[in-house]
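Example for tutorial group B:
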């Protein structure tokens, strides 16, 4: 299981939100410094998100993202505001290994498919979700500010026909809370698709990472886990996270 240390950027700073609420941020310094620290500890991938771009569609932190891609030997997976072919091409041709389409994958599925075919294995889809009043897991868009009305399981199944590199599944209600991952929900996602699944949201300790490493359905396991606040707050060291994923 691959470890993806998360670097969320808002206003040029590395931050963590709680349940996707933009006003509830904790600042953790310079995102390039954080990236260098993770990479020097041995992280082979980083999960970088431009939060401002996710909300507005304008790549406010694009220069910082590309600086990270140039500065570290790790592979960079980037999401947030990638909503057209031009933005995707700029990132993928300037050092980013994989882009994550969120809103664009929901609202422009044809674009997502075209990009996945143009850049095999280098396009992921980010499915951020929360439970609605009926208890169904529904995909949210535009930096978690809008609800698509599409159920998570259905969206995952619809992606099967495209050569998607991975699906990043984020439980918004757990994101930034360190309340533990939604293991049952992740099993449901594994049952719904054969695509590689990267879990995101809720990791609080090394045992959570080990629990995710043990998740399986129909003989399939999770391809990776995104770890954010737990690393930045010091609840888990980067070395502990990497070792737990490797085991």
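The residue assignment follows.
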């Amino acid at each position: 299981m691959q470890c993806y240390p998360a670097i969320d950027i808002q206003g040029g700073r590395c931050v963590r939100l709680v349940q996707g609420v933009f006003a509830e941020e904790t600042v953790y310094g310079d995102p390039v410094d954080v990236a260098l620290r993770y990479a020097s500890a041995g992280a082979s991938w980083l999960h970088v998100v431009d939060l401002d771009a996710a909300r507005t569609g304008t790549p406010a932190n694009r220069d910082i993202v590309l600086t990270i891609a140039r500065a570290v030997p790790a592979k960079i997976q980037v999401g947030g505001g990638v909503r057209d072919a031009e933005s995707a091409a700029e990132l993928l041709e300037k050092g980013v290994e994989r882009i994550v389409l969120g809103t664009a994958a929901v609202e422009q599925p044809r674009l997502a498919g075209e990009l996945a075919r143009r850049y095999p294995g280098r396009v992921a889809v980010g499915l951020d979700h929360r439970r609605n009043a009926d208890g169904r897991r529904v995909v949210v868009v535009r930096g978690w500010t809008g609800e698509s009305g599409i159920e998570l399981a259905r969206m995952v199944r619809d992606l099967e026909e495209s050569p998607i590199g991975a699906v990043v599944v984020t439980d918004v209600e757990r994101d930034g809370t360190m309340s533990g991952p939604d293991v049952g929900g992740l099993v449901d996602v594994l049952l719904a698709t054969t695509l590689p699944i990267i879990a995101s949201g809720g990791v609080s300790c090394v045992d959570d990472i080990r629990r995710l490493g043990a998740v399986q359905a129909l003989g399939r396991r999770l391809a990776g886990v995104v770890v954010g606040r737990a690393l930045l707050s010091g609840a888990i060291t980067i070395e502990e996270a990497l070792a737990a994923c490797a085991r």
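The mean pLDDT is 92. Compare this with the pattern of hydrophobic and polar residues in the output above.
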